[in-house]
């Protein structure tokens, strides 16, 4: 029987044609994504689901998706898909990471021009038969400073176009190396400097814990008077209420928003304010981009359903079915090692070395490499997939090297990841035990044996008596149960580390109590996707 695919959002007809040409039964119901109940009723009939952003693939919806094998997002952001829930059900989630980047960058530039010259309001006034020439005084872009927050795929295209408009471009992106900044011709600055210098600020970061409210009331207060703010990335990056207040006070001269905290946005503090340009998440809406992403997603879904080939997946690297059986736990381990390093690193990475030892060195290294790199890069964008991660890392000028060896040692095989930043080097190694469970076995050259859990705490301290008791005591008093506690030290009395697997995510308040004991260097909460 031919596989069946449901398209539940507005997608170019090109996708329907591809599915038909490939012998796949396709049901094109572009409005269904907005009808949760109806979607839940029929989702069980399909092997594949092709979506944009209107369809919300929740854990609840997936409970009904009894035949679903693949979800394809025609676009970049997969924040509308519960990926851990999909992974748990063995459903592959794919995106199309580059197909709409140029179009979205162009939308940001269009929004910047619209807000600089008040084009929407001037147009509405002219349509109304008024001729308010003196009401609409604009500002020139030439010579102005554009502050770009997030200089990835889209942000770097925006930088390029803005330089063509003779603007000065400064960028804040903790993952941008000096080399890459030089290559794209921007000045790399810290956020506060960007806020103080920019005449226009445009955001091109994913929505993560670190970027949520990156333009908070406090940050907006640090901006230059008369600044104009453009958001074509994700709602939630800017505190809309704080921005509305700053526009009303006259500190911010205008804003152009394509994305909102709640979408579809039927109400927002920004609506109906003077010189605020709004569009309904149109960043990717050009015929060219929609054709690109529709064709790509239809080919990817068809390939997977017909041949098992995996492309641009967020939750599985490209491996054959045979390899997947043996490599499954090693792929998980690789992701955890990358994730560990990503969570430890807050500065630009210039090099990554991945050492494969013993059995690991004889596997499909491309898949393991991708999983490590994606684990690292997801710190900076959770939408990074296993295929795009190495490409993006290379584009950012990160030098990736691998080492293979077959040394005799304690383990049948292990993987060690060493990351070099502009100021230091960090490493973590892990292996897979015979129970199929990945373990961390070395951190910063110190041997450990740490089971990997969803929530962990990493600490550093001096190897002196009483430290472990203090840590256990504070956590215990605050209801944090320790499932596994691993210690290691460089030498007696020297640097020591502890890595704890805890049953619940500790609050910052509890971690602050640990820090307040004064016995620890670092106290870092960590999170791993163990599904
Ligand atoms: N409006 C629309 O229709 C569209 C919106 N988007 C959104 O645009 C955003 C950017 O997409 P891409 O450029 O493809 O992603 P990308 O992953 O290529 O770039 C994101 C950049 O943000 C940087 N970053 C991460 N955390 C940061 C932080 N705390 N501070 C500053 N920089 C940080 C990363 O290092 C990276 O360089 C995403 O949220 C995406 O979903 C994408 C397409 C269409
Ligand atoms: O599909 C769309 O219109 C939205 C695109 C988008 O936001 C993305 O690709 O992240």
TrEMBL record:
<dbReference type="Pfam" id="PF02826">
    <property type="entry name" value="2-Hacid_dh_C"/>
</dbReference>
<dbReference type="Pfam" id="PF00389">
    <property type="entry name" value="2-Hacid_dh"/>
</dbReference>
<dbReference type="InterPro" id="IPR050857">
    <property type="entry name" value="D-2-hydroxyacid_DH"/>
</dbReference>
<keyword id="KW-0718">Serine biosynthesis</keyword>
<dbReference type="InterPro" id="IPR002912">
    <property type="entry name" value="ACT_dom"/>
</dbReference>
<dbReference type="InterPro" id="IPR045865">
    <property type="entry name" value="ACT-like_dom_sf"/>
</dbReference>
<comment type="pathway">
    <text>Amino-acid biosynthesis; L-serine biosynthesis; L-serine from 3-phospho-D-glycerate: step 1/3.</text>
</comment>
<dbReference type="InterPro" id="IPR036291">
    <property type="entry name" value="NAD(P)-bd_dom_sf"/>
</dbReference>
<keyword id="KW-0520">NAD</keyword>
<dbReference type="GO" id="GO:0006564">
    <property type="term" value="P:L-serine biosynthetic process"/>
</dbReference>
<dbReference type="InterPro" id="IPR006139">
    <property type="entry name" value="D-isomer_2_OHA_DH_cat_dom"/>
</dbReference>
<dbReference type="InterPro" id="IPR045626">
    <property type="entry name" value="PGDH_ASB_dom"/>
</dbReference>
<dbReference type="InterPro" id="IPR029752">
    <property type="entry name" value="D-isomer_DH_CS1"/>
</dbReference>
<comment type="function">
    <text>Catalyzes the reversible oxidation of 3-phospho-D-glycerate to 3-phosphonooxypyruvate, the first step of the phosphorylated L-serine biosynthesis pathway. Also catalyzes the reversible oxidation of 2-hydroxyglutarate to 2-oxoglutarate.</text>
</comment>
<dbReference type="GO" id="GO:0004617">
    <property type="term" value="F:phosphoglycerate dehydrogenase activity"/>
</dbReference>
<dbReference type="InterPro" id="IPR006140">
    <property type="entry name" value="D-isomer_DH_NAD-bd"/>
</dbReference>
<comment type="similarity">
    <text>Belongs to the D-isomer specific 2-hydroxyacid dehydrogenase family.</text>
</comment>
<keyword id="KW-0028">Amino-acid biosynthesis</keyword>
<feature type="domain" description="ACT">
    <location>
        <begin position="456"/>
        <end position="531"/>
    </location>
</feature>
<dbReference type="Pfam" id="PF19304">
    <property type="entry name" value="PGDH_inter"/>
</dbReference>
<dbReference type="InterPro" id="IPR029009">
    <property type="entry name" value="ASB_dom_sf"/>
</dbReference>
<protein>
    <recommendedName>
        <fullName>D-3-phosphoglycerate dehydrogenase</fullName>
        <ecNumber>1.1.1.95</ecNumber>
    </recommendedName>
</protein>
<dbReference type="Pfam" id="PF01842">
    <property type="entry name" value="ACT"/>
</dbReference>
<dbReference type="GO" id="GO:0051287">
    <property type="term" value="F:NAD binding"/>
</dbReference>
<dbReference type="InterPro" id="IPR029753">
    <property type="entry name" value="D-isomer_DH_CS"/>
</dbReference>
<dbReference type="InterPro" id="IPR006236">
    <property type="entry name" value="PGDH"/>
</dbReference>
<keyword id="KW-0560">Oxidoreductase</keyword>
């Amino acid at each position: 029987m031919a596989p069946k695919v449901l398209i539940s959002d507005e997608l170019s007809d090109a996708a329907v044609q591809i599915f038909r040409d490939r012998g796949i039964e396709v049901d094109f119901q572009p409005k269904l994504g907005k009808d949760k109940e109806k979607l839940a009723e029929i989702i069980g009939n399909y092997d594949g689901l092709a979506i944009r952003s209107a369809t919300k693939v929740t854990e609840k919806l997936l409970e009904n998706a009894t035949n679903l094998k693949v979800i394809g997002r025609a676009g970049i952001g997969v924040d509308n898909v519960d990926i851990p829930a999909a992974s748990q059900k063995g459903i592959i989630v794919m995106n199309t990471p580059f197909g709409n980047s140029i179009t979205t960058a162009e939308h940001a530039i269009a929004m910047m021009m619209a807000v600089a010259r008040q084009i929407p309001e001037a147009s509405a006034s002219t349509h109304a038969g008024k001729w308010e020439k003196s009401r609409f005084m604009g500002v020139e872009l030439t010579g102005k400073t554009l502050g770009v927050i997030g200089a990835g795929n889209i942000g770097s295209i925006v930088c390029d176009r803005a330089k063509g408009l003779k603007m000065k471009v400064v960028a804040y992106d903790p993952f941008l190396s000096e080399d890459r900044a030089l290559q794209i011709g921007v000045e790399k600055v810290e956020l506060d400097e960007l806020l103080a210098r920019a005449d226009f600020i445009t955001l091109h970061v994913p929505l993560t814990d670190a970027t949520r409210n990156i333009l908070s009331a406090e940050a907006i207060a640090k901006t230059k008077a008369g600044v104009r703010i453009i958001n074509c990335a994700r709602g939630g990056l800017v505190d809309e209420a704080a921005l509305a207040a700053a526009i009303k006070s006259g500190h911010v001269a205008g804003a152009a928003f394509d994305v909102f905290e709640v979408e579809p946005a039927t109400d927002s503090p920004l609506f109906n304010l003077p010189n605020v340009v709004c569009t309904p998440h149109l960043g990717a809406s050009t015929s060219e981009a929609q054709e690109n992403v529709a064709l790509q997603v239809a080919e990817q879904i068809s390939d997977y359903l017909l041949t098992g080939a995996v492309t641009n997946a967020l939750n599985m690297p490209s491996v054959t079915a045979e390899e997947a059986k043996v490599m499954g736990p090693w792929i998980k381990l690789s992701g955890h090692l990358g994730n560990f390093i990503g969570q430890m690193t807050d500065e630009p990475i210039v090099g990554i070395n991945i050492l494969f030892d013993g059995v690991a060195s004889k596997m499909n290294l491309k898949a393991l490499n991708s999983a490590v790199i994606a684990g690292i890069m997801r710190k900076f964008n959770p939408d990074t997939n296993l295929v795009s991660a190495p490409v993006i890392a290379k584009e950012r000028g990160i030098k990736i090297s691998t080492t293979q060896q077959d040394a005799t040692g304690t383990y049948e095989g292990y993987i060690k990841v060493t990351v070099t930043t502009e100021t230091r080097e960090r490493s973590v190694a892990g292996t897979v035990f015979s129970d199929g469970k990945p373990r961390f076995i070395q951190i910063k050259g110190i041997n450990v044996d740490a089971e990997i859990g969803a929530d962990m705490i990493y600490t550093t301290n001096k190897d002196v008596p009483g430290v472990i008791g203090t840590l256990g005591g504070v956590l215990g008093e605050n209801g944090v149960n320790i499932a596994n506690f691993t210690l290691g030290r460089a030498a007696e009395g020297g640097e020591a580390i502890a890595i704890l697997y805890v049953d619940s995510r500790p609050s910052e308040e509890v971690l602050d109590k640990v820090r307040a004991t004064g016995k620890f260097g670092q106290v870092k909460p960590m999170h791993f996707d163990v599904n």
